[in-house]
Structure formats: C-alpha cells, structure tokens
Amino acid sequence: MFNKLNLKVILLMVLSLMLILTGCGATKSNKAQEEQKNENVQAETGTRTITDDIGRKVEVPNKPERIVTDWYLGQLLALDVMPVGAVMANLDYAAYLKDYYKEDAIENIGDGEASLEKVMELNPDLIITWDKEAVEKYEKIAPTIVFSDTNYKSIHEEIKAMGEYLGRTDKAEQFLGDFDKRIAVAKEKINKVISKDSTFTIFDLGKKNLSVIAPNGVVGGRALYETLGMTPPPKVKELFDTKEADGSRYEISYEVVNDYVGDYVIEMNYFNKGGSLPATWTNLDAVKKGEVISLAPEYYFASDPVSVLHQAEDLATKIEKLTKEKK
After folding, report:
1. What is the pTM of this model?
2. Within this chain, do residues 201 and 148 fall inside the same structural domain, yes or no?
3. Are residues 316 and 263 in the same domain?
4. What pLDDT shows up at residue 2?
C-alpha cells in the first residue's frame, strides 16, 4: 500500500510537471510567432528600428533613397549616396566634395540654417542632422537620425556607423578599402623623405593670437595626425594630452609660438588674410626660409572622411615637395 501511495504521488507530480512544461512551451511558441509576425510586418513595410547617436529609437527605411542632411554631406557622398537636399553653403569650405556630385543634383535647403519649408518640399524619407534641438521639427516631416562624428574614434568607425544607419554597409566597406589603400600610399610618400623623429605643427593664424590645430578636427588636423600618423613636437603633444581643444584649436600667443614649432610648419591664414604678422612669427626660421606649407581654407575647413582623404594626399605631396627642396 505504501508503494502504491508513493506511485500515485509520483504520477501526480509527473503530470503536473508536464502541464507546466506544456504551458511554457505554448507561451514560448506564442512569443516566437509574435516576433516573427513583427519581423514580417517590418519586411513588408521596408523599415527597421535603429538607435541613433543620442540614444533615440527611430524607425527608418531599410534603404532610404530621399535623404536630407543639414551637415553630413561628405559622409553620405563617401557611401555613394546623393542626398536630395543639403546645406550647400558648407561646400564653400569643403571644396573637395564638389567632384563627387553633379551641379544642381542636390537641392540647397538653406544657407547656414535649414529651411523647414524647403525640406518638406523635397519629401524626404530620412533626415540626418547634427542638431538634437532640431529633431522635434524635423521628425514631423520624416524619420530623423541625430548623427555625431565626435562619437567615433576613427574614420573607420564613423563610416561604418553611417553605413549601418543607411543600410549601405557594402558601400562603407568599399569606401574604407579604397581609403586605406590611398592613405598607405600617402604615408609611404612622406616616410620616404622625412626622418623617423620629424615633428609637425599646424598653425591657424589670427590677428592678435594664433591657434595650434588639434589632432582630430579641421584645418588638416585629422588628416595629418589621426590619419597620416605624423608626430607633433613635445609642447604640442602636451596640449593634446592635457588640454581640451576649443573648436579643434588651442589658442596661444604669438609671443610663445616658437615653443610649439615642429620640424615642419604648416599654416592656414584665413582670419588674418592680408594683415601684418608680428616679428615672433616672421622671424621663425621656417618663415624666413620660405619653408612653411600653406593650406587653402576652401579645402581645409572640413574634416569629413572624403575631405580628409584628399587633404592627406595633398599634405603628402606638399611635404614630399618641401623636403626635396630643402635638400
């Protein structure tokens, strides 16, 4: 009797466990069916959900075709994407991009600030902005991604992220493959003519003061340091390591400029064009000998991946030419 009682208890326990497992299985099956249903709906509508650079969940087209951007034209052109609209005034200082599209192929949405009316007329299926404050206005027109190039440590990371957002990872890999090959050639060109311990400084000349250019921004900084891997002199490296740049620049006095001079001096003179410069600048050896590399503002105020690629190649040519002339 004792054995029969034990057997009944065991059978009841087994039966209860089977019922529980059956219920769990049904729940999992229902959940799987619901997830599949959601995936099918997304596939049918051609959309997916991404998380943009400020953490917003955004439902975007799998492969948007009518894109508007208020800043990131270079990143789009790198992926062989022709936006229907952009702030074209930016091209006044990103002239390398002009070879990547046909004239009038991109509608100008404003000078400096985008016109919402113009953006709406273009009927975009995606808007890419730098300005999180503009999202509320933009997303009434189309799905809006906030992109921030400062979120990424390298051009590789930046382009891969944009490729993911736009459903064009193949184009991102294609651009980066070409980018790496061309940068390798530019590096080799430089390394053939300079010594291993050569140092480089980029100065942006002003009327009262001047600036040392940071290693990851405009005026050739991203091209020279981050991309080509050139070395700053000790005092400049100290700035990079211990100070926070203001707009890709570290402002210094002309009185101490000599402390920051590298073996190669590179300058851009936009803010003091045609103005006189103090003796502390004009008496620098590189200046007196005519051995300063000058940068054109219309090509060097940009730091997008396409512009940086061309800037790096241009710098390599200029450094090679100057070094050969010095010898």
Report:
1. 0.85
2. no
3. yes
4. 37
Helix, strand or coil, per DSSP, at residue 3: helix
Q: DSSP secondary-structure letter at 92? A: G
Enumerate the H helices of the chain as residue ranges: 2-45, 73-78, 116-121, 135-138, 155-166, 169-191, 221, 234-242, 279-282, 285-288, 297-300, 305-326
Distance between CA atoms of residues 206 and 33, nearest Å: 65
- Number of domains, the chain: 2
139 shares its domain with 201 = no
Q: Domain range holding 117?
A: 49-167
Is residue 142 situated within a structural domain?
A: yes
Handedness of CA 115, 97, 159, 190 (dihedral sign): negative
| 78 class by beta-carbon count within 10 Å (0-12 exposed, 13-18 middle, 19+ buried) | buried
Assess whether pLDDT exceeds 50 at residue 1.
no
156 in the same domain as 86: yes
Q: What is the pLDDT of residues 36-60, one digit of tens each?
A: 544 444 444 699 999 999 999 999 9
Does 295 reside within a domain?
Answer: yes
53 in a domain, yes or no?
yes
With beta carbons less than 8 A apart as the criterion, state whether 85 and 109 touch.
Answer: yes
Residue of 22 and 202 predicted with greater confidence: 202
The pLDDT value given to residue 41: 44
For the chain, the distance separating the N- and C-terminal CA atoms, rounded to the nearest angstrom, is 109
